[in-house]
Design a protein that fits this description.
The protein is mostly helical. Helix content is 56%, strand content 9%. The longest helix has 23 residues, at 35-57. It is globular.
Length: 172
């Protein structure tokens, strides 16, 4: 959340000549309603079902960059599917930067709480091991421009396609 997945993903896809898919946008199209409304009407569990179905539908797409919602890693099946799709990048930003970026966006249902900063901390804590398990590489976007982060992603993708062992650490 707030790491720049969609904007950086679009840049990467454009530079590589790939198609770009945003699972949140595809879920909105499939459900016919915004994500916040899915949460309100059907709950988080139904949203996660949409997420799983949408990700699985992308397994037939080649030459694509896929941006997912941050909670997609909560489902073990999704983690497996992500790895099967190809190289998985983990874009991360510090909690402070994340809060600054997402606090302006009212469309984030998980942050509709009296203490959204604490929710961000809890999400980081809960999801970090799952991101580590799933990702081939990690890039901190906190102090990088979208252009800089996209260039690093492309570099990591080239390493991956050359069959070099993926690096697990943060890309500096």
């Amino acid at each position: 959340m707030g790491s720049g997945k969609s904007s950086i993903g679009r840049r990467v896809a454009r530079k590589l000549g790939y198609t770009f898919h945003d699972t949140d946008r595809l879920i909105i199209e499939r459900a016919g309603m915004p994500i916040a409304q899915i949460f309100q009407r059907h709950g988080e569990s139904r949203f996660r079902e949409f997420e799983r179905e949408t990700l699985a539908s992308l397994s037939r797409v080649a030459g694509a960059v896929v941006s997912t919602g941050g909670g997609i890693v909560l489902d073990p099946a999704n983690r497996k599917t992500l790895r099967q799709l190809g190289c998985v990048g983990w874009l991360v930003a510090s909690e402070e930067v994340t809060f600054e970026r997402v606090s302006r966006n009212q469309r984030r249902p998980l942050l509709h709480t009296p203490d959204p900063r604490d929710v961000i901390f809890q999400l980081f804590t809960e999801r970090e091991p799952l991101y580590r398990e799933t990702a081939h590489f990690r890039i901190d976007t906190s102090l990088r421009s979208q252009s800089q982060a996209a260039a690093l992603v492309i570099s990591e993708l080239r390493h991956f396609s050359e069959s070099e062992p993926p690096r697990r650490g943060d890309t500096e």
